[in-house]
Amino acid sequence: MRASFGALSALVVVALMAVSFAAGLVAGTPTTTTTPRPTPSAVRPSPTPSASPTALPGVVAQAIVVPKRSVDVAAPITASVEQVFVREDEQVREDQLLLRLDTSTRRAQVNVAEADLRRARAAAARAQVVVDQLPEDASQAQRDQAAADLRLADAEVALAGSALEAARAALRQTEVRAPWAGTVASLAVSAGEQAVVGQTLVTIADMSGWLFETTNVGELDVVRVAIGDRALISIAALPDIELEGVVEQIRVRGGAGDAGVRFDVVVRPLEHLPDLRWNMSATIRILSGNPGS
Q1: C-alpha span between 228 and 102 (Å, rounded)
Q2: 211-256 confidence digits (pLDDT tens)
Q3: CA triplet 213, 217, 221: central angle to 5 degrees?
Q4: C-alpha count within 13 angstroms, C-beta hemisphere, residue 223
Q5: What's the predicted TM-score (pTM) here?
């Protein structure tokens, strides 16, 4: 019985040694650990960029084409239109007569003033003769009276002369002339029609150069724009053309817009495009140099 128990103990010892040897072999061999794949709910989405890296900076605005300069020539008086000397799209020179208003009343006033001046001058001439022909024995009172009459006659001449100048100035108001050379962009009246003082009769434009004037730059965007900023101009009617320009003017005073206060920004293109027409629509991207724009 003891011999059997001893043999059994020896077998247990041999078995334990074998297990220890096998464990050593396993410990010396590198193992590969497989990381479990996360479930879809554990996958974190990639952050969405706040802006495209290729997006252009700047202020985008709508604009219209305007001539380099323009003027509305208004009626200086209320009168009927006597004659029109120009037509739309005609080139005119500085001080050219555009139209004439009714002259009948003012020409009559000139005629009356001219007659008054002639009478005043004749009276002054007679008063001068009286002074020149005073006898040597004329009393001091006679001399004083003659001198006073002459002074009064001279004053009447001056007054009549001023009245004539005023009448002639009123007559000149019937002539509507071009303030400078340009193109007749619009003609609002025809011969025989009544013109009211302050009413626009003719619009003259200098179309030798064009500008782009924005229509919707708000107060939050205008502070990002500076004179001299570069601009890219796209024209609705000419989609294959993109012009480069520069900010030439920023209006100091804002006006009422659809979404609040609006400030007009004027952009000058760097090249002249003869195909442009007044009030064509355009889109402008102003590339401001301010940081963060």
Answers
A1: 49
A2: 999 999 999 999 999 999 999 999 999 999 999 999 999 999 988 8
A3: 135
A4: 5
A5: 0.66
Output the CA–CA distances (angstroms, integers) from residue 278 to 66, 193, 201, 231, in the order listed: 5, 27, 18, 20
Domains of the chain: 59-68+209-287 (2.40.30.170), 103-173 (1.10.287)
| b/e map 210-226, b = 16+ CB within 10 Å | bbbbbbebbeebbebbe
Mean pLDDT to the nearest integer, 76-96:
96
Sequence-distant (6+) residues with CB within 8 A of 176 are 73, 75, 76, 97, 98, 99, 100, 101, 201, 202
pLDDT at 68 over 80: yes
Amino acid in position 214: T
Which alpha helices (H) appear in the chain, and where do they start and end?
2-27, 104-132, 140-172, 219-222
- The pair of three-digit structure tokens given for residue 167, joined into one six-digit string: 């009448």
